[in-house]
Amino acid sequence: MKAFLKRKNIEISLKRYGIDALGAMAQGLFCSLLIGTIIRTLGQQLGIQYITDIGTYAMAVSGPAMAVAIGYALKADPMVLFSLAAVGWAANAEGGAGGPLAVLVIAIVAAEFGKAVSKETKIDLLVTPGVTIMVGVALAKLIAPPIGQAASAFGIMIDNATKLQPFAMGILVSVLVGIALTLPISSAAICAVLKLTGLAGGAAVAGCCAQMIGFAFMSFKENRWGGLVSQGLGTSMLQMPNIIKNPRIWIPSILTSAITGPLATCVFKMQMNGAPINSGMGTCGLCGQIGIWTGWIAPSEDAIAKGASAIVPTAIDWAGMILICFVIPAILCPVIFSALKKAGWAKDSDVKL
Asked: Within a 13 Å sphere around the CA of 198, how many CA atoms are in the beta-carbon half?
């Protein structure tokens, strides 16, 4: 069996499924639902139906895009990879509110079954796509609905808890999602799975921005403008090798997220009512801020289901977003990092990319 799995490149591991597949799923979601939401909102605001339609079509294929991305991460053969489009559509449709989580679980299983039978028979053209699609769609019908119900319930629980306890949950959501963004897992996929919007979504954005902007500015002396852009508009995940060498360099951004999270929920009432994936994007391509903006003018279906409605943003709304997402992390992280250096816990070279 071990020899068979090795020959088929089937690796049952946390890294393959929890990091590679999850990260790829987030990219698939980004290239369909997220960019589609942005394009559709742009079309709606400009009153151009053609642009609106483009965004709508992109959003409609989020299930297939996620499943194919997962198959690519699992190094699936072409016949398996292409067959996953049908699996992704079925899992996302049957999963409802928990569509992305259903796609993740079901696409992994379907892809591995497809890989197992790929090129093992003389009628591979029929067997490989047949097995992949039948296994995937059967699982979609069987387990996607309960997965969707569970994910929806958990997301609603987080949303309600944040409304009832905005200070404590502001800290908790901000810190945990921010940490997930810097770890080699997908904070965007996690937020998409949990349908994180509203105040909880705002806290998540705050935590992600604290990590990205925080590391970008506190490492500016070593990494200069290239590091500022790659971390501030890219990802703080670039610092993971340095964090492993000296975990103390993570203190400034984590403490900052513990401050900006409750500021977002309690002081500025900052809500992210765009597509849930935006909650886990931070300043990556400014997607977190675009999500906040689209949530103001055209809330996503997930946010509307939780009671959100369009608003006319005030000066306080804009000031809150700018302070939480950019200004406070850019000031606070370097100050805390300076204190660490004085205490002998870190040095500038510890954050060099």
From this structure: 26
Chain position carrying tokens 């049952």: 12
With a cut of 90, say whether residue 197 has pLDDT above it: yes
For range 82-98, the mean pLDDT: 90
Looking at the DSSP bridge assignments, the partners of residue 198 are: 272
195 vs 159: CA distance, rounded Å: 9
pLDDT at 185: 67
Tokens found for residue 97: 């509110």
| Residues 95, 171 within the same domain | no
Segment 138-143 shows an average pLDDT of: 95
Query: What is the reported pLDDT for 352?
Result: 93
What pLDDT score was predicted for residue 211?
A: 96
* Mean pLDDT estimate for the chain: 90
**Alpha helices (runs of H) in the chain, residue ranges in sequence order:** 2-7, 14, 22-29, 35-46, 49-60, 62-73, 78-95, 99-117, 124-164, 166-182, 187-194, 198-218, 220-229, 240-245, 251-262, 287-297, 301-305, 315-322, 328-342
Reduce the DSSP state of residue 272 to 3 states and report it: strand
- Does position 38 have pLDDT exceeding 80, yes or no? no
Q: Would you say 325 and 293 are in contact if contact means Cβ atoms under 8 Å apart?
A: no
Distances in Å between the alpha carbon of 160 and those of 166, 222, 253, 279, 309? 9, 42, 26, 16, 17
- 221 lies in the same domain as 345: yes
How many domains is the chain partitioned into structurally?
A: 2
Residues facing residue 272 across a β-bridge: 198
